[in-house]
Design brief:
By secondary structure, this protein is α+β, with helices and mostly antiparallel strands. The chain has a single domain, classed as Glutaredoxin, CATH 3.40.30.10. It has helices at about 10-25, 50-65, 75-80, 85-100, 105-115, 125-140, 145-155, 155-170, 200-220; strands at about 1-5, 35, 180-185, 185-190. It has a 4-stranded mixed β-sheet, with helices on both faces. Helix 1 packs parallel to helix 2, helix 1 packs across helix 9 and helix 4 runs parallel beside helix 6. The longest helix is centred in the last third of the chain and has 22 residues, at about 200-220. It is globular. About 35% of the residues are buried. Mean pLDDT is about 95; it is low at about 215-220.
Length: about 220
Amino acid sequence: MNLIFVADPMCSWCYGFAKELTTATNSFPELPVQIVVGGVRAGDTSIMTEEMKQFRLGHWARVEALSGLPFNRQAFIALENFVYDTEPICRAVVTARKIAPGMDLLPVFRRLQEAFYVHGQDTTRGEVLAEIAARAMTDLGYPTRAESFLATWNHDSTIAETREDFTTARRWGITSFPALLLEVNGRLHSVSPGYLSARELERNLRIVLERAGHDAVAMA
């Protein structure tokens, strides 16, 4: 039995949700969290115009109001010739998962988010992602060098595994992010099809856990 967080680090609602998920899961230490990356804008090639940036900032304002998390608007606006391609950062999450399969991936996911939303770093660049993720993994007790992280990030197998995550999310019918699922005996139960507060997540999870337990008994 485990939770599956389907998300994209450069989705602003996922940024807010990851904080709430971290809080909520403290009440359920027996439930590990698996992350499946969704690739909300994977492969995008268009350079963001000022109008596109302002549209994005509108979403950020709503997330900030609900979550209380900070956003570095000035740094985002200052990015020149920026292409909002989320495949590289999704692949960084997959890279961390490949290097340290037993690690709690959520803190690394959040560090990558903070690099973009708080510190204004260009998280479409492999070298930037490698430095952030390697430092986060090392802090979690999994010593990792940025150079080795980048090599794994660039590997064809990592690119393929990232695409497999995108395909899995679509196969599950998930077209918007974030989404939280509970997997029990191979069956998926929806906990949250979008942003929820930690309190709402805990309530939903208790309901789904009780329902899933009843289903398991009925099938026995």
